[in-house]
Every structure is written in structure tokens, then in C-alpha cells.
Amino acid sequence: MKRVSWSSLDASERVQALRRPAQQASADTRTAVATLIEEVRARGDVAVRELTERFDQVSMDALAVTDAECAAAATALTPALRDAIDEAAGRIEAFHREGMTREYAMDTAPGVRCERVLRPIARVGLYVPAGSAPLPSTALMLGVPARLAGCRDVVLCTPPRPDGSADPTVLYAAMRCGVRQVFKVGGVQAIAAMAFGTASVPKCDKLFGPGNGYVTEAKRQVSMVEGGAAIDMPAGPSEVLVIADAGANPAFVAADLLSQAEHGPDSQVLLLSDDAALIDAVAEQLERQLAMLSRAGVARRALESSRLIQVDTLQQAFDISNAYAPEHLILALRDARAWLSQVEAAGSVFLGDWAPEALGDYCSGTNHVLPTSGAARYVGGLNVASFQVAITVQEVSRDGIAAIGPCAVELATAEGLDAHRLAVALRLDEVAA
Amino acid sequence: MKRVSWSSLDASERVQALRRPAQQASADTRTAVATLIEEVRARGDVAVRELTERFDQVSMDALAVTDAECAAAATALTPALRDAIDEAAGRIEAFHREGMTREYAMDTAPGVRCERVLRPIARVGLYVPAGSAPLPSTALMLGVPARLAGCRDVVLCTPPRPDGSADPTVLYAAMRCGVRQVFKVGGVQAIAAMAFGTASVPKCDKLFGPGNGYVTEAKRQVSMVEGGAAIDMPAGPSEVLVIADAGANPAFVAADLLSQAEHGPDSQVLLLSDDAALIDAVAEQLERQLAMLSRAGVARRALESSRLIQVDTLQQAFDISNAYAPEHLILALRDARAWLSQVEAAGSVFLGDWAPEALGDYCSGTNHVLPTSGAARYVGGLNVASFQVAITVQEVSRDGIAAIGPCAVELATAEGLDAHRLAVALRLDEVAA
Questions:
Q1: Which of A20, A293, A321, B24 is deepest in the core (most CB within 10 A)?
Q2: Quick one: average pLDDT of A42-65?
Q3: What are φ and ψ of residue A82, in 5° steps?
Q4: Fold classified for B2-22+236-365
Q5: Which residues 220-259 in chain B show a CB within 8 A of chain A?
Q6: What is the pLDDT of residue B23?
Q7: What Cα–Cα distance (Å) separates residue A326 from each residue in A235, A347, A362?
Q8: Domain A2-23+236-365 belongs to what architecture?
């Protein structure tokens, strides 16, 4: 892991130190993904089955998970795992429910009632990857807010296992969220099927969830096409930035860095500290803990493009962090709470020594689908509002238009929009008559 | 305007009847826009000045509007127009303030405090077009929520007039919203300048506002590029759908259809009614009112791709409207309020005979930047949250991790993520010790 001292870097070295690994799909990937999407769009389930055979090495008959499979999933899990899923779902639901957008109404003038009403997005598609391992936590993070929003059709796609079944942990988590339409389809074919619909898979208005580079590129492409689907947010590799002071626990900090690094070789982890000894100790701990990890190879590759950065002051660390806008920000500081006000852009923040990022991934209650690649500068993580549309409403009486109509006439005149003016003026005439 | 009876249409004719005019930019447009963006990105202000000379036929020295120009703008307006802008700004501010997202905090378990905090997007860019006419109302619709959000840098670009000045109405509206950085730059060059920054124009994190096809394509392109800027929402031509019953006022309905049609030749307006006589009367009123409009040519072209649709029942009209997901939905119904619950997807809804869509454009208080092209199925209009990021926070004590740590360990184990498990387990060991 490269170690640098921020003050010793010139401007271009600083840019370089915070540069994320290149993320845009290659031209080859783009073309390949476009071809796959077109196949699914043109030939529906037939293409989905062919691609599943090609990429998942399994020949599928029915793509939909049956009720019997769902029932069997619950019994396949240990009670401890079922309890853990239930417990996590409960806290995620509590936190998300409390943050729900509210409807409201107010009179902006006598006789002019303006409102915001909320509606669930009718048809949503959730993607739960299962590349290196199944991700029941992702099913919860997508399924809980979809249920709170009240979406009518909630579709979930997850890759089949070699025997053609779906992972029971993912199924159990999906059921826990009330998801009834689960399909054993993965990768680009899943995204295309949900975006355009097939005989089996319903067409969805908006797609959610993480995935590998192909899935991410597929989501990008279907969101660009007329008749495609919207997507939750621009996705990129996972990342964490830790700001630690001299009092931080080096083993904890190293563990937090590694838990991000193990996500993938393109994950990026950054440590910023004003204490050289702490950085030394973390570097030592990284090596020690790497030896204990099953995914050490992946983590080691991620660490190659990561940085240990020594700063002069903690304020400097916050300036760097705000410029970088990390997905996860851990404040391993003695007075983390007081420093929170300095955070301008981050997906989710973890305060103090006892808040590892892994808690947010699973069960603190916050969502783990968060903005990556610096998108935290302009967008927040997934929440119930991501599954809803807000509609504004105005109800106007005769008194109402008499009160505000002249204002509209004046502005329409200034903008040279005759018909706008006329639509108001006709009514004002009628009210005056 | 084409007139159809919904029941007499087969499935493909129904699709055709609701088809929007093609909206994706041509390959030529895309290439042209990409070239212009690249010029601005590479050569900054020099390119902006050249393009301004080419497209706006004016040679600009300073691009920034001076304080003196702002001061002069206020006095250039009639008192009535100043008052109208102030009045509209007041109601827009009141409605948007009431709908602001709130911060919240809760304990999801003993010792686990989860929160949502809000931060303004630091640097936002507002685009206010001035093609056929200046649009001070757009300056209000963008500037008011940006101010409420507390954005640090609010940049506004608007095309220069032939004499090199900015429209005083737009300037006055911008000042009313506290916007201090106004640039006389329009079109693709404005979008590129705000996305990438030039010596004069600050680089922005997110761009807002409507524009012609070139501006829309430029926004799309800069939002796709690493190092570019986010954008408010997918933009398309304006549209209105009116559902009217036998009791509706045909002159009002026709005026509302025309006030959308005059926006541009690609605007789309739809009337749905269960009453043939009302449709006849509206058709007659359309012809009569067209004769009174300065922009009759534009409106007439828009009407060519628009429809008068006779439905069997009002419920059928709502089914059609929900499938279409119009930007503006006018319910010219005797019991409009009761029908609101049937609306699943629309940008903004206008209830009853006295709520012309023009009121929403200017001064009811709601925002007029709304989802077009069916995007109302998955996104709402502009609001203060569009200018903010929500950050989740978790603060965990020793008791907190003792309470929820085992749940995270169980799930990390199920997902095969060792380092995640370890980050929690190390702390649990320490707590237990």
C-alpha cells in the first residue's frame, strides 16, 4: 500500500494520489453488453435461457422461483442465520420508515392549495448478485425500502446456482421483504429482461442494485434507451476512507480497510492520519490480518491502488475527504461527533472506534447501496424515496385565481407566451363577469 | 388535431396514439455537441467566446455579469413586473420550504444511533434559456430551491442578447434568489463550461434547467463522462394531458392545450374525455384561439402530433394517463379532488376548472421543472432535495456493537466475507475482554 505525505505532494501528485482506478467499461465490454441486451430484447426468454446456459453453465426450464422453493429455503437456513436476517431487516425497516418523505399541503394564497402527494413506483426490479457469494444483505437493502414504498410489482433477479436453484439465503431475505416475484436470472440478461420484459419477467420502470462491471454497464445502457428503465444510481467499485487520529486502534482500522478491499480488486481504500506511528501500526496490522483472510488475493490487489496518507492536521484530512467524496467514511477519532459537521460529501459516515463499516453493510439500519466514484458530491444513498415519485398538486378556486392570476399574466407577458397568458386571462374574465 | 375513439383502437393503434414524437438526438446532433463540448473542455473561455460569437452573433469580452449590470436590471423593469417576480418567488419559496427533507436520528438498538444529515451540493449550475424569449420564471424555479438548500456556489448561465447584455428580467429573478455568479453564456458552451469549468465559469457538481435539443444533449453527454457533472433529470419536450368531463369549460380546456403547444413544435398535448360534445367544443375553441396567438405556427405544429381521445369512462382515461405519465395533468372534472387518488404517475396535477397549468409554470408555488417523456413513472419534479445530499451516519458505543455485532458476524459469514466478519469480531473480542 503506497504511503505518502500530503504536504510533500505538488498539485498534480495530489490529484494522482486521490485518483480512482479507471472505471468506464472498455469499448469491447460496451459492445458485448449491447449485443446481449439486444438479444434479450428481441428474443425474450429464449435468449435469457441461452445466455444463462452460456454464462451460468446451467440449463433452466422455468425461470421463476416457485412457492415450494421459497418454503424450502426457509428450512434450509440455520435458525441463527434466519434470526440474523430477521433482526437486520427489522432495524433496516425501522430506520428507513422514520426517514420516509411526507406528503404535505398548504395554502400558498387564499384559494390556492398546493400539495405534494407520493406514489410508489409501480414496477421495480431488484438485482441481487451472487458472484463470489450470495448477498442476502443486498436483498434486504433493496427489498425493505421497496416494501415501505408500497411498490405494486417487486421483481427480483439473482443468478442460478450450478444446480439451477436460487440461493436459499437470498430467497429467505426476499421473502422477509414480501418479494413474491423472484427469477433465477443473472448478469446482463437479468438487467435486460427487467428493463424490457420477457414472457416470464415483468418489465420494470426502475432497476436497483449492485453488480459487476457487466451488470453496471448493462444498467447504464438500458437507462439510456427510450423504452428502457431508470436506474438507482451510477455504480462503481466500493471504497472507504478512514480518518484516524493517534488514539485510534490500528487493528480496527486495518480490519476496516480490509473489509472494503476484499470486495474486489478494483475497490479503493484510503487512510488519512496526522499520526505517523498510527500509520506504521496500521500497515503492520494489514499484513498480519491479510494472512487470515480467504480473499487475501483480492484484498491485496485492491490495496495496490490504495493509499496511506499522512496529513498535517485533521482539518486537512477533512478537506481531502470532501474533495474525494468517499462512499464510506470512518472517523476513528477521539471526538468523532464534533468532526461530523466538517463532512460535506460522503455516502455513509461511521463515528468512533466501535462503528466498523461492516455494521452499515448489514444491520445498523442504514442502507448499504451508496454513491461511489465521487457521486456522493451530488447524490445520497438508497432510501424509500428512491422507490417513490413525488407529485405536486394545485387546487385553485375562483378566489384563488383572482388572487394569483394577475401575477401569472404579468410573467407570461414578459416571457412572450401568449397562450399561457390567455389561459389565465380567460378565467380571470369569467371570474370578473 | 387527430381525433380518436379509444375503444375502437386495437392494441397497436393504442400504442401509436400515445407515442411521443421521437426525441433522441440524431447522430449528427450528438457528434456536433460532442465536438463543441470538447472545444470548451480543451480551450475554456477562448472556446466559449468563439462559440458565443458563432451561435449568438455577439462578441463578448467579460462573460460575467457585473454588479452594475444587476443593479441596472432592477430599474429596467416595470414595478408591476418586479412585483410579479417577487410575488411568485415568495410563493415558490413557501411551498418548497415546507417540503424540505428533514434530518433525523434514532437509536435502532441500544448504543446504535443512526441518523440522516443533509448537506447542500456545494457547486450547482443553473441554465436559463432565452431562445424565443427570456425565462425569468425558470430562474426562480432553479434559484429558489438552490438558495433554500444553502448551496455555496450557485452559478447561472443565460445566453447574451445581441448587444452583449443579459436579459434584465432574468437578472432580476436571479438576484431575487441570491444568485451572485451570472454568466452571459448560452447553449452547449454554457453546459460544457459549467460541467468542466473555465477561467471565468466555475466547475459545478450538478447542472439544472431546461433547454433546446442541443442543450439537452449536452447535459446528457456531460453527465456520462468521468469528471463531468450530474444533471437534474432527463429532459424532453413539454407535454400536457387534460381529462375533461361534460361539465368542463371548452374555452378553458382549449387554452390549456394551447399553452402547452406554444412551447415548441415537438410539444405534445392530449385531451381525454368521455363526452363527445365537449371534444367538439374544444376543437372549435382551439381554432378560434389559435387565431389570437403570436406563436400560432409553433402551436399548430405541436397539435399535429397531438390527440383528442374519446374514452368510454373516466376510469379508462385515468388508466391511459397513468400509462402515459404526463408532465402536466389537468383534471377538468366536477369532482377533481376525488379523482386524485387515481393518479399514479404525473409530474404536476391541476385540479378543477380554475387551475390552468400556467399557474404552475409561474406562481402557484410548485416547481415547473418536471419529468417529461414518461419519466414521471419513476422521478418527481425539482425540489430542494434535488440540491442536497443526504448522508447517513451511525454512531456506535461498546454496548451498541455488543448488541448488533453478532448479527453482522452471522451475515458476513453467510456471505463469505471474512474481513467484514473480522472487523466486527475483533471489536467484539475487545468488548468482551
A1: A321
A2: 95
A3: -60, -45
A4: Rossmann fold (3.40.50)
A5: 226, 229-230, 249, 251-252, 255-256, 258-259
A6: 67
A7: 13, 7, 19
A8: 3-Layer(aba) Sandwich (3.40)
